[in-house]
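Before relying on records like the one below, remember that each one covers exactly one chain. Contacts with other chains, cofactors or solvent are not represented anywhere in the record.
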Amino acid sequence: MLVTRPEPGAEETGRRLAALGWEPVLAPALRLAPRPMAAPAGVQALLLTSRAAARAVRPGPLPAGLPVLAVGEATAAEARHSGFVKVEAAAGDAAALAQLAAARLDPAAGPLLLAVGQGYGLEVTLALRQSGFRVQRRVAYAAAPAPALPDRARNALADGRVVAALFFSPRSAHCAISLFHEAGLAETAASVMALALSPRVAAALRAAPAPLAWRAVQVADRPDQDSLLQLLGPRLAKR
């Protein structure tokens, strides 16, 4: 089972797969690095678009009691682990996060601090501004493409041992596709089931240039890891 999620999440997913009886092969398509982020004063809430953002933003510069809205349950758990005490989770995507903010917060009460990865967060920023909020978007981490597939992943793909690959974001899907091509392994995707966290991830996978074509693309019912792992049941057994 190929895991393209960046670290440290890739190791966690690998442990979940191993517990389910699969052999995980970690091949993070992106490398994440925290970025120094100034903490503006006067914000009414912190919005987190990913677990990586939650890991990069800690109480200290920001009050531990500052209300935090997280994109999903996993991000909310990470924020609580970091020390924030007033954390609420949205339903798992940018639209749900913007809807939660509109329902819980008042545009007149002050700006929102949106902590994102470099190049991310534009969709939720636009949605919030259309709802009348002032948004201070800050880069909490940078994501760079991995330089190559790990040797273990290359060998597993070349030997035809990879049953499925897990994809957690459109960008990591695009980067993984590039790594397949650069390794000369694009045609091995014909025997691999691509499992996508969301419809946007699935769209990125289906847009892969030839000769890469997945055996099939399956989409999780909800944009969370538990739903993604549920795809490893009867559908894959039909191989």
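The chain has two domains: 2-29+146-237, 33-143.
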